[in-house]
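Appendix B, example 12.
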Amino acid sequence: MTNETEAARQVRVAARALGNHNLVHAYGHCSLRLDADSFLVCPARPMALVEVGEACTKVPVHGPLPDGVLGEVRIHQHIYRNRPEAGGVVRFMGQNVMALAALAHAPKPRHGFGTYFAPGVPLWNDIQLIRDDEKAKGVAETMGPNAGVLMRGNGAVTAGESLIEAVVLAWYLEDCCRVELEALKAGLADTAPTVPLEAARARATKAGMIFERMWDHMTSGDPELSR
């Protein structure tokens, strides 16, 4: 059982970090699992504008969304249902993620950050917004055990063992898409090397405070963090 006061603070900090690093804008959301049956989701407004102490909403993993919660939060529900280990989910749309999503072109693991999504980022190939359970279930099933999923024309979702991991993975996926776009622009996407699965699994480490250091970078100066 996660302390709800602390959980809400972390959700707000995560929301502002995603907004301040241009991974979301007017749209996007993040959540933190409280227990097997519930999670907290950020306020339904531009994430960089989430205020200190602003209330987050408790959402059931199974059941209808509470009033005022964005329809696409159903994606979070289905990911939490499918993946008991998931502790955080981020729905985002960085510029590079959106460009590849519009092209329906999933990035390959070509550099260190890309290895966290090996053997490759799955693609949900449907342009429609995810506002019903059938589509949300489809996105979660397409994602499977991968750290992320690209949604055609609509950005991406990441999931981690914690919200901190999910936020950092969003940054990693955005950079993975940046590298893929550079390969496409250079005409090297078909010939440039990718990281083999075994090597990718070895490289995608959590040692050395990899996630914690990126989290510190992304949340530096946040008004709800004491340093």
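The longest helix spans residues 163-185. The two ends are 26 Å apart (CA to CA).
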